[in-house]
Amino acid sequence: MLLGKVAGTLVSTQKDEKLRGLKFYLVEKLDLRGGPTGAFVVAADSVGAGVGEVVIYVSGSSARYTPATEGKPADATIVGIVDSWDLNGKIAYDKGAKA
User: Fold this and answer.
1) Which residues contact residue 44 at a Cβ distance below 8 angstroms, ignoring those fewer than 6 apart?
2) Are 17 and 73 in contact (CB under 8 A)?
3) Among 19, 38, 73, 74, which is 20 to 30 Å from 65 by CA?
């Protein structure tokens, strides 16, 4: 599993029939301190995430293990919305904290 931040949406009117009904996001990969890495991935959403949220996503064959993506040609899927995490005993990210 990997950490990322939903940076934007992706719209595709022409796609494989198996992908119809899936929502796609551009997800920027994050480091363990929550900093952007500059690398992006297109991910299907299986949990109702939104732009600006920090998420957990999976890639490769794991991306096809959700009910939303089973049997579909997905290579990255958002599987969780992050509330918080700590690193070495210190809060690295807290969704509820004011910026």
Assistant:
1) 19, 22, 23, 24, 63, 68, 69, 72, 74, 76, 77, 78
2) no
3) 38
**How many alpha carbons lie under 13 Å from residue 98 in its C-beta half-sphere?**
0
Token code pair at residue 31? 């480091």
Q: Are 80 and 55 in contact (CB under 8 A)?
A: yes
CB 79 within 8 A of CB 68: no
Please list, in sequence order, all residues whose beta carbon lies within 8 angstroms of the beta carbon of residue 95, skipping any fewer than 6 positions away. Answer: 53, 54, 82, 83, 84
**Which positions of the chain have pLDDT values less than 70?**
98-99
Q: Which residue has the tokens 């998420």?
A: 55
Please tell me whether the overall predicted TM-score, pTM, comes out greater than 0.85 for this model.
yes
Residues in a beta bridge with 30: 36
> Given phi > 0 = left and psi -120 to 50 = alpha, else beta, which region is 79?
alpha
